[in-house]
C-alpha cells in the first residue's frame, strides 16, 4: 500500500475520529497502528468483526468495556522479578474484573445471536479470578494496602494508632496549658519530616527543648518536636518502618503471583485490545450512519449515496459512483468550480476505510474492491524546497505511479496535465491515461481540458463524468453525473453577473460552431440524465412496494390454505362422530323392537324391521373424505391452457396458465399466480375470450381485468378515457375495490381522475393509498 496516497487522502483523520470511540488505551494503541489491509481474506474478517460488534450495539446499546488498562508493562516487570507498585496491581485487578464482566456479557449475547467471531473471543477469555481475589483482598481500589493483607500488618497498624494517639494526647496537653499560649504561633499540631511538631515563636525556642525540624519563611516560627514526645515519635517512626517493610513483602508476593499468571494475562490483554477495537469501529460506523460493504477482488466498485466522511452530514452531497464493470476509467471534465476533487477523495478514502475493516458512509448494497495499491496525485504539489514547479512536482509523482501501477491498483489523478501549455498538457494527459488504462488499473481522473471530453467516447472501457453546476446560484451542486461530460458555464455565469449581452454574443461568435453543438448536446444529456435518475428512483420504490404486496399476499394464501385444511379435517372428524352416534342409536332402536317382538307384546314382522333399519340408515348423513366439491354431477371437462375458470374455494375467476402435475394447474387470478387442485376448478369458457384490441388497454392480460390501472406517463385526455373504460370493466368483474396509479407530479392528472370519480354513480368512496401503497400517488376506489 502506498503511504503517500494514504497521507494524501488524510486517512490519519479517520484514525483520529475513530480513536474517540475507544474505551481504553489498549483500543487507542490498536487504532494508532490501523492500516488498510491488502489481503482479501483479512479484509473480509475485519468487516465481519465490525458487523458483529454493530449487531451487538444495535441490539443491546451498550458494551461493558470500562476498567480496562494496558497492563503489559507491569506483567513484563513481574516476569523479571520486579516488585509492582500498588497502582499497577490495582489496574491488573480492574482489568481482570472488567474481562469477567465482558465474558459474561458476551456469553449472553452469543447465546441469543449467531456471532462466530465474538464466540471465539469469548472462548479465549480466561480471567484469573484467583489473582484478582488476592489483589482485591490486599489492596483497595484507591491503591491503599488494607489491614487485612496480613496479620502482621494489622498488628503494626494497631500499634501505630496507639503511638499516634499518645503523641497527640501529649502535644495537646502542652498547647492547652496557659503558659504555652503566648509561646506558640498557633495552637495546632502539625507534621514535619514525618514527625509530630508544634509551631513555637522564635524567642521561646529553648523553652520546650527537643528538636527543631523546620521554620517558617519569615524565620519567626520554628516547628519543634518537644522533648517529652521525642521517644513516642521514635516508637511511632519505628512502627512505620516495619509497616513499610511488610507492605513491600505483600507487594512482592502479589508480583510473584502475577508472574505466575503472565501468559493468561497476555492473552487476556490482546483479547481486550481487539474487542475494544471492534466496538470502537462499530460505534464510529453507527455515528456516521455507515453500512457494511460487499467486498470483492475483481476491482469492482459500486457506491450508492456515498458521502465524504469529513463533511458534516447535513452539508455533504451523496453521490452514486460505479467503476470496474462497464468501464474501468472515469474522466471527470468541466471547469474548476469545485466538487471534482471531493469525488476523488471520497472514493479513495472509502476504499481505504473498507480495506481497514471500517464500515463506509454509503447506503446498503454498496460494494468495494480490495486493491493491492492505491495511488493518488491530488492537490498542489509545488515544492519550493526542491525548486520544482507545480507541473514538475506532479510529473515526479506521476512517474513514480507509472513505475508501480498494475491491474490491482486504484489510481486517482487530480487535474491531470495541469500547469503547462493546454494543448501539450491535454495530449500528455491522454497518453498517461492510455498507459494506466491499458495496464488494467481502475482510474478516476479530473481535468478542465475540453480536449479530454472526446477521450471517453473514443476509447472502450472509458466514460465521461462531470459535477453538476447550478447557474442560478452560481455554485456547484456537487452531484456527480456519470456519462455526461462537463461543459463550460462561462457565458451563463457572466450573464448572471451582469456582463453585457452584446459582449457575450460577440464572444459566442468567436467559438467554433462544433463547440456550440457539443455544449448543447451536453446540456441535453444532463437534462435527460436527471429525468432518468428520477424515473429510476420511482421505479425502485414501486418495485419494492410490489414485492412487499406480493409477499404479503403469498403469505396470506398459505395461511388460508393451512387454515382451510385444518377446518376441513376438524369438520370431517365431527361428521364421523355424528354418524357413528346416529348408527348406534339406530341399532339400539332395532334391538329394542326385536326384544318387543320376542316378548310378544308387539306384533312386528321381520321385513318391517329390515325396512325400518333401511329408512334409518338413509336418514343418517354419510362420511365424506372429499373437501369442498360440488354435489351436483357435472360433465367431466378436459382442461386446457387458456381456459377461463372459476376457483370454487375463492369464488374468483381466472385463467389456466399451465398444468403443474396430474392433479394441479397454475391459475392466474388478478395479479396472483397459484397452484389449484383440478377438483377445485369449474370451467367457464373453454377458450380465452378473443376481443378486438381496444383503443385503450388495461395493464395485465388482454382477457382479464387487473386490480390496478397505471396512468403514469399518459396524456391527460387519454388517461381519462382509460379510467372510464377501466371502471366499467372492474364493475363487470365484480371487484369491490381497485387502485388507480397516477403518480405525484404536478397533481393535474390526480385532480382529473378524482373529479371523474366524484361524478360516477357506482363509486362509493375513494381515498389516497397508505404509505406502503404509494401514498398520494395512488387513489383507492371503493365501489357500491
3D structure, described in words:
There is one protein chain. The chain is of the alpha/beta class. It folds into 6 domains: 3-128 and 261-287, MutS, DNA mismatch repair protein, Chain A, domain 3 (Orthogonal Bundle); 153-238; 294-511, 3-Layer(aba) Sandwich (Rossmann fold); 526-622; 628-690, Roll (SH3 type barrels); 708-783, Ribosomal Protein S8, Chain: A, domain 1 (2-Layer Sandwich). It has 22 helices and 23 strands. The strands form 6 sheets. The chain has a 6-stranded mixed beta sheet, with helices on both faces. Strands 18-17-16-15-19 form a 5-stranded antiparallel beta sheet. A hairpin with a 2-residue loop joins strand 1 (190-192) and strand 2. Helix 21 crosses helix 22. The longest helix is centred in the C-terminal third of the chain and has 86 residues, at 513-598. The protein is flat, with a radius of gyration of 45 Å. The protein starts with a helix and ends with a strand. Mean pLDDT is 81; it is low at 382-387, 623-634 and 688-703.
Amino acid at each position: 500500500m502506498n503511504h503517500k496516497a494514504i497521507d494524501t487522502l488524510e486517512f490519519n483523520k479517520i484514525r483520529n475520529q475513530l480513536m474517540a470511540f475507544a474505551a481504553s488505551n489498549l483500543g487507542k494503541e490498536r487504532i494508532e497502528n490501523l492500516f488498510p489491509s491488502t489481503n482479501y481474506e483479512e479484509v473480509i474478517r475485519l468487516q465481519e468483526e465490525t458487523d458483529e460488534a454493530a449487531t451487538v450495539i444495535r441490539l443491546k446499546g451498550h458494551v461493558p468495556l470500562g476498567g480496562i488498562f494496558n497492563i503489559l508493562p507491569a506483567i513484563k516487570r513481574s516476569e523479571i522479578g520486579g516488585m509492582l507498585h500498588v497502582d499497577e496491581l490495582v489496574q491488573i485487578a480492574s482489568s481482570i474484573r472488567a474481562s469477567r464482566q465482558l465474558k459474561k456479557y458476551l456469553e449472553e449475547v452469543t447465546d441469543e445471536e449467531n456471532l462466530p467471531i465474538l464466540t471465539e473471543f469469548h472462548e479465549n477469555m480466561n480471567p484469573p479470578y484467583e489473582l484478582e481475589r488476592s489483589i482485591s483482598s490486599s489492596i483497595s481500589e484507591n491503591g491503599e494496602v488494607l489491614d487485612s493483607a496480613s496479620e502482621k500488618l494489622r498488628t503494626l497498624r494497631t500499634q501505630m494508632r496507639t503511638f499516634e494517639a499518645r503523641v497527640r494526647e501529649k502535644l495537646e496537653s502542652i498547647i492547652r496549658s496557659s503558659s504555652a499560649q503566648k509561646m506558640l504561633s498557633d495552637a495546632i499540631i502539625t507534621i514535619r519530616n514525618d514527625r509530630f511538631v508544634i509551631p513555637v515563636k522564635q524567642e521561646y525556642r529553648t523553652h520546650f527543648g527537643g528538636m527543631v525540624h523546620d521554620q517558617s519563611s519569615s524565620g519567626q516560627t520554628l516547628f519543634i518536636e518537644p522533648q517529652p514526645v521525642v521517644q513516642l515519635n521514635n516508637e511511632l517512626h519505628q512502627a512505620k518502618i516495619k509497616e513499610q517493610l511488610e507492605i513491600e513483602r505483600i507487594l512482592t508476593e502479589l508480583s510473584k503471583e502475577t508472574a505466575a499468571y503472565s501468559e493468561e494475562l497476555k492473552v487476556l490483554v490482546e483479547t481486550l485490545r481487539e474487542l475494544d477495537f471492534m466496538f470502537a469501529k462499530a460505534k464510529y460506523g453507527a455515528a456516521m450512519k455507515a453500512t457494511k460493504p460487499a467486498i470483492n477482488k475483481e476491482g469492482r466498485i459500486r457506491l450508492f449515496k456515498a458521502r465524504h466522511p469529513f463533511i458534516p452530514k447535513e452539508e455533504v452531497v451523496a453521490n452514486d459512483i460505479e467503476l470496474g464493470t462497464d468501464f474501468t476509467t472515469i474522466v471527470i471534465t468541466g471547469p474548476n468550480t469545485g466538487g471534482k476533487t471531493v469525488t476523488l477523495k471520497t472514493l479513495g478514502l472509502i476504499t481505504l476505510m473498507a480495506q481497514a475493516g471500517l464500515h463506509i458512509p454509503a447506503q446498503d448494497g454498496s460494494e468495494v474492491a480490495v486493491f493491492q495499491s492505491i495511488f493518488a496525485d491530488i492537490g498542489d504539489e509545488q515544492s519550493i524546497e526542491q525548486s520544482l514547479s507545480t507541473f514538475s512536482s506532479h510529473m515526479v509523482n506521476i512517474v513514480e505511479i507509472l513505475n508501480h501501477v498494475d491491474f490491482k491498483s486504484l489510481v486517482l489523478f487530480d487535474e491531470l496535465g495541469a500547469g503547462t501549455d493546454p494543448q501539450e498538457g491535454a495530449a500528455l494527459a491522454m497518453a498517461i491515461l492510455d498507459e494506466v488504462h491499458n495496464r488494467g488499473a481502475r482510474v478516476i481522473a479530473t481535468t478542465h481540458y475540453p480536449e479530454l471530453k472526446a477521450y471517453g467516447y473514443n476509447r472502450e472501457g472509458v466514460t465521461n463524468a462531470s459535477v453538476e453546476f447550478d447557474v442560478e446560484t452560481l455554485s456547484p451542486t456537487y452531484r456527480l453525473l456519470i456519462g455526461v461530460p462537463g461543459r463550460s458555464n462561462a457565458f451563463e455565469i457572466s450573464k448572471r453577473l451582469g456582463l453585457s449581452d452584446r459582449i457575450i454574443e460577440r464572444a459566442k461568435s468567436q467559438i467554433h460552431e462544433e463547440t456550440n453543438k457539443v455544449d448543447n448536446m451536453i446540456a441535453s444529456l444532463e437534462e435527460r440524465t436527471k429525468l432518468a435518475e428520477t424515473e429510476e428512483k420511482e421505479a425502485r420504490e414501486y418495485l419494492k412496494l410490489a414485492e412487499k404486496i406480493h409477499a404479503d399476499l403469498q403469505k396470506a394464501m398459505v395461511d388460508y390454505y393451512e387454515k382451510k385444511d385444518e377446518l376441513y379435517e376438524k369438520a370431517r372428524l365431527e361428521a364421523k362422530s355424528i354418524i357413528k352416534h346416529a348408527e348406534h342409536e339406530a341399532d339400539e332402536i332395532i334391538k329394542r323392537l326385536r326384544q318387543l317382538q320376542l316378548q310378544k307384546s308387539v306384533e312386528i314382522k321381520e321385513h318391517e324391521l329390515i325396512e325400518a333399519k333401511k329408512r334409518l340408515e338413509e336418514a343418517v348423513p354419510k362420511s365424506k373424505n372429499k373437501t369442498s366439491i360440488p354435489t351436483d354431477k357435472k360433465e367431466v371437462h378436459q382442461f386446457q391452457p387458456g381456459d377461463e375458470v372459476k376457483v370454487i374455494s375463492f369464488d374468483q375467476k381466472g385463467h389456466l396458465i399451465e398444468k403443474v402435475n396430474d392433479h394441479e394447474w397454475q391459475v392466474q387470478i388478478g395479479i396472483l399466480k397459484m397452484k389449484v387442485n383440478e377438483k377445485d376448478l369449474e370451467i367457464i369458457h373453454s377458450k380465452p375470450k378473443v376481443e378486438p384490441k381496444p383503443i385503450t388497454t388495461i395493464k395485465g392480460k388482454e382477457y382479464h381485468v387487473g386490480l390496478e390501472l397505471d396512468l403514469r406517463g399518459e396524456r391527460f385526455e387519454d388517461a381519462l378515457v382509460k379510467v372510464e373504460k377501466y371502471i366499467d370493466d372492474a364493475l363487470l368483474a365484480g371487484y369491490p375495490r381497485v387502485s388507480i396509479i397516477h403518480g405525484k407530479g404536478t397533481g393535474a392528472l390526480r385532480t382529473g381522475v378524482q373529479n371523474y370519480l366524484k361524478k360516477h354513480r357506482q363509486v362509493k368512496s375513494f381515498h389516497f393509498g397508505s404509505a406502503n401503497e404509494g401514498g398520494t400517488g395512488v387513489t383507492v376506489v371503493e365501489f357500491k
